[in-house]
Amino acid sequence: MTEPGTELKIWAAGVFDGEGCVVIQRIYDYYYKVSVNIGNTNPRIVEPFCEHWGAKLYIDGHYQGIPSVAYYAYFSPSEAPAFLSDILEYLRTKKGAAELVLKALRAVAEAHSGNHPLEPYFWEGVKKGYWGTKMPGYDTEPEAERVASAGRLALVARAHPINRHLKVLDKKTGIMYKTRRQCGEALAHEYKLPISARVWDKIYTRDPNRFSLYSISI
Is 147 strand, coil or helix? Predict the structure, then answer.
């Protein structure tokens, strides 16, 4: 690995602003990971990131869903901080996201843990618009989230401050319920369920496509 000079750092920042990815991803429920990479169909654009910053090169047979050879440089959590620190002052569009990811990686290193410390930084990035919450079973809307799995609903309500209270729209009847509990109690008879603290979860697990969830900012 050769030490990058100022000119190369400026070039790398420009390319990364346009072609790079710096996010904290929620893979499932309580598992989060940092993703720092850059992809392009031209290997000459990707190779310097491997040569000067130690990224790993991967070759894929598809690029944005189109059959075509694409080249990707992936930074591990141990390699990403040095790279992001080198280009940070020259970044424009991805500077905020890069600063937050750097802060998150340092927190993980200090905590000697690879997972849980990332959660608050993930939600901070969501609120600032650096990345969305989309993952299998999730969709994202401004100031609102629709969640397609009752098992994940508690996670969103706990982790995301704007989702501590959720309104529920029954798309079948058009009725908007102020709380999940209110909705569950109103529909318990229809689903032949006894009214209990978990009746909403049971209804939502059976028929998630019937409802849309909307947050109330507090």
Answer: strand
